[in-house]
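This section describes the prediction task in plain terms. A model, or a person checking by hand, is given the sequence of a single protein chain and must write out its three-dimensional structure as a string of tokens. No templates, partner chains or ligands are provided. The sample shown here is typical of the held-out split.
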Amino acid sequence: MVRTLLRRRKKALSAEDVTVSDRPMVRRAVTAAALGNTMEWFDFGVYAYLAGTIGKVFFPSSSPGAQVVSTFATFAAAFLVRPLGGLVFGPLGDRIGRQRVLAATMIMMAASTFAVGFLPTYASIGFAAPLLLLLCRLVQGFSTGGEYAGATTYIAEYAPDQRRGFLGSWLDFGTFVGYSLGSGLVTVLTLTLGSDGLEDWGWRIPFFIAGPLGLIGLYMRLKLEETPAFQKEAAAEATERGTAEGDGESDPVEAARQSGKGRLKEIFTRHWQAVLICMGLVLLYNVTNYMVTSYLPTFMTVTLGESDTTSQLLVLGTMLLVVLTITAVGRSSDRWGRRPMFMGGSIAMILLAVPAFLLIREGGILWPAFGCAILGLLLVCFAGTAAATLPALFPTRLRYGALSIAFNISVSVFGGTTPLFASFLVEQTGDTLVPAYYLMVAGAVGLVSTFFLHETAGRPLRGSGPMVETHGEARALVARSRTEAGRHARDVWLRLWHPLGGRGRADKSDRED
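The expected answer:
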């Protein structure tokens, strides 16, 4: 009993344990990370809105449905290599730093997206054209494997504990701004050039814009510093290695643990529960995300027969609704917690997916607008909360790698394939409510995952000390910690020397305080 009580002694925080965030650096970190996501999703918005045009340019076929499936198959192929990118960039980011890896992913993303605009068409070089398109998409997918996990990790490790939800939501704000810019540009090109002009040469314009966007993002990321959490972790590991070398000892077990293989083994043996929870939450978020952003425009035009302009404006309006509400959701998750946001959204998804698609099937503008708005509000429940929730599942030394692997496996298997499976199932079954059923299954998986999720709002990240905004908050936190540690030590002392009445005396003393 004595040993148990002594092990449970609570250590007070010191001033060195609390990190005070640098506000200008936090703003730069959030901006640079969000800009990378903006560029990535600018490409996704363009590709989703140009799915029909790209199908005609690169996949000539007598069946429009077959063209769409071929286009989305190329879209999905990029997601199949994302886990490989996660396996490479994630552990690398834990070893050499978040900032350098994020700069590398930005270069690869910008170059591959820019290259799509120069590709020859099927009419020019035949079957080689879709192969080149596939190659560009694979490079995009590989680089994206380290992008989102790295960006969420970077923001989470810079954000104060009490504002992590709000600041993290700006990352996905960049996501939907990028999608809105891409889809809005395609809508303008469609209105000005018409279908013939778009198919002839206009489809190249959005991809050319990705080059300058990538250069701006790269410049901003090269100006960033490493996160405080990573710097502390790296300093601690360097101290341990220096001590071991000074003693003339080399621990092969510790060396293996620090290696890439050692980190991967630790992720899947010691943190497998967190990996599964992460995959479930990512499935919920990304199935909803890709259903709305990538599949819905094509669903309304090809399946329901709506005009290109109508469907594009409806989905663009949905994205603007998400953009306007996402930071409010992030701030709410700081106040009410991450679990209530995910749980409420999951239940609403199960109940409202079918009504939303029934409204979309009505045709016209008004009822589909309501249906799209429902899907947008469901999406923002997850989008505004994910960037603060997912990094908190893993400790600092493994955070980038574990999140990259779990996130990209789930996105590749379930998220990125959503447009492909939805379009294939609708064509095979003829049931236009199949996308709603798909969303209901995702909501059920998300609900189960949220049940096992521990609340992390307002708490330090695993493996890191508290982070606050001001030195006054740091002093108050240290003082409160010392008071709590003193009371805990008194409680332990009373239990040791007065095992029968100690608890009552401690409780009485607490009430008097």
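For orientation: Confidence is low (pLDDT under 50) at residues 508-513.
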